[in-house]
Amino acid sequence: MKDSPTRRDSTNCTGADVSRRNFLGQCVSTATLVGVGAVPALANLPITDVAYNRMLKVAADYQNHPNGKEHCAICKHFRAPDSCEIVIGKISPHGWCRYFKGARSSAGGGSSY
Questions:
Q1: Under 8 Å between Cβ of 85 and 77
Q2: I need a labelling partner for 28 at 20 to 30 A (CA). Which of 2, 52, 95, 113 fits?
Q3: Measuring CA to CA, which residue among 95, 67, 68 is closest to residue 81?
């Protein structure tokens, strides 16, 4: 059994001869390191922001001024005085983002959102 052609000698393993077990182990190690690297980025956010998938202002295309007649103060996601269900950080009542959704129709307008 000393000269068996089906048995591999681990001491003669070259860079091109990598076992599936070693490859998968390296993949798991790399994925773990990438996951650990993301933790500091989320460390400054309250757990509720991460858990509810709230996003940064940049991702929501937030701006500190209204978009025509649309502004945060009349949006259903706005929480007075300066927060939002979707966007993280201080939100201006006069701001706007792409997730704007009117909370109520104007008097006599009859439009529904």
A1: yes
A2: 52
A3: 95
Encode pLDDT of 48-62 as tens digits: 555 567 899 999 999
**How far, in Å, CA of 113 to CA of 105, rounded?**
8
| Cβ within 8 Å of residue 60, ≥6 positions away | 86, 87, 97, 98, 99
pLDDT of residue 18: 74
3-state helix, strand, coil in the chain (%, to 5): 30, 10, 60
The closest of 33, 34, 35, 56 to 44, measured between CA atoms, is 56
Instruction: Look at 49 and 26; give whichever has higher pLDDT.
Output: 26
pLDDT value, residue 99: 93
Dihedral over Cα of 11, 12, 13, 14: its sign: positive
Distances (CA, A) of 45 to 32, 51, 63, 88: 21, 10, 21, 9
